[in-house]
Amino acid sequence: MTQVESPAQVLRGLGRAFAGAVLFALPIFMTMEVWFLSATIPRWRLGLLVVLTVVLAIGMARYVGFMGGQRTGVKDAVVDAGVALLAGVGAATLVLAVLAVVLPWEGWRFWVSVVALEALPATLGACFARSQLGSSSQPGEQETAYRREVFLMCAGATVLCANIAPTEEVVLIAARMTPLHGVALVVLELALMHAFVHGVGFKGGSPSRPGFISVFFRFTVIGYVVATAVSAYLLWTLGRYDGTGLLPALMQVVVLALPASLGAAAARLIV
Amino acid sequence: MSPDHDDGGGGRSAGQRLEWALGAAGAALVLTLLGFLGYQGTARDHGPRLQVRVVDVQRTPAGFATTVDVLNEGGGTARSVQLSGEVTSGGTTLSQANATVPYVPPQSHRRAVLVFGTDPSRGEVRVRAVGYTVP
């Protein structure tokens, strides 16, 4: 808690966060559908997305930890989340301005909308990059460790999912697939996820390897449900369910769960 | 993670029991999803069935903006749905308008607006889907 950082260290941390934001959110920066969607989705859904972005950033700071070791207090977490948000919004604005997508001084409404939508993966990318700076994982007690794992899976799912959710391809792929393709996709997603989770093992964990079934139920299945929930939420935010029947809506969720579940499983590789 | 992992049932902490309970609930959700998709895969009828109805007419500077609801009651998605509408009175066509809807998923509806040059209430308005592609 009492660790003091020099201005140079703080700047280095900010630079790293900025680089992470650009790296993790570049696909969405260069996706055309975002421009259209951000202008049309209901404002309160966009507002909710921004609130959840802040909550996720604080959670990342709290569970994963940032600069200089044992900074896990709520206040520190909020400060770290603020830096990540700044980097995320700054990266989105800079890249979008250079790409001539938005010019902040003309049409600020459009600028705010696009950046609000793209801040989610950018901020989380900044968090992921910053988590590499300090000694990250606090082993802690088991319950905290499990909650941390589930939270990490949620954050990983969100980053990958948010980059793909706005694309029209999700809708088109879901339309091309029959429900039986959907069944096959769910099985594939679970298998890929389990391969990641079981193959990677547990960083900072005990030397004893938990069994197959234990890992499957406690991590793979939970991770898959979290990933599916993230993809369902993002599709709802983007208005993909409006006027849409249950089956096509579910098929979209299953399609978007592919990047979400891979992101969830791979998040533990990154941090 | 704690060293006391095993695959069996009993002798765990409350936290671990909660983890297993969550895992079981998650598994139930995934099985429900698989069951629903599997059931739909066998029970579903294929091919889109489109139906268009007029829901609203607004007078705008561009003309009479006629909002239509395109409903797909079939089992497949229709892409690039082309709508063609005309206002007729006593066998003569007073005005024509077209619109394209990007896609209409099965059991879903989408809105489109056709802009007529004459007031649809002066005659009979008929809008129908004249073509679409199957993804």
If you had to describe this structure to a student in words, what would you say it looks like?
Chain A has helices spanning 7-29, 33-40, 43-63, 74-98, 108-131, 142-164, 168-176, 179-200, 212-237, 246-270. With 271 residues, chain A is mostly helical. In chain A, helix 6 crosses helix 10 (246-270), helix 8 crosses helix 9 (212-237) and helix 8 (179-200) runs parallel beside helix 10. The model of chain A is unreliable at 203-207 (pLDDT under 50). In chain A, 49% of the residues are buried. Chain A has two domains: 1-136, no CATH class; 141-271, no CATH class. With 135 residues, chain B is an alpha+beta fold. Chain B has two domains: 1-43; 50-133, Sandwich (Immunoglobulin-like). Helices cover 22% and strands 48% of the residues of chain B. Chain B has one helix spanning 14-43, and strands at 50-60, 63-72, 78-89, 92-104, 108-116, 124-133. The longest helix of chain B is centred in the N-terminal third of the chain and has 30 residues, at 14-43. The chains are: A mainly alpha (271), B alpha+beta (135).
The domain tally of chain B reads: 2
Largest interface: A-B, 45 and 39 residues
Strand residues, percent of chain B = over 45%
Share of helix of chain A, binned: over 70%
The CATH superfamily title of the largest domain in chain B: Immunoglobulins
Largest sheet of chain A: none
Mean pLDDT of chain B: 86
Structural class of chain A, please?
Answer: mainly alpha
Mean pLDDT of chain A: 85
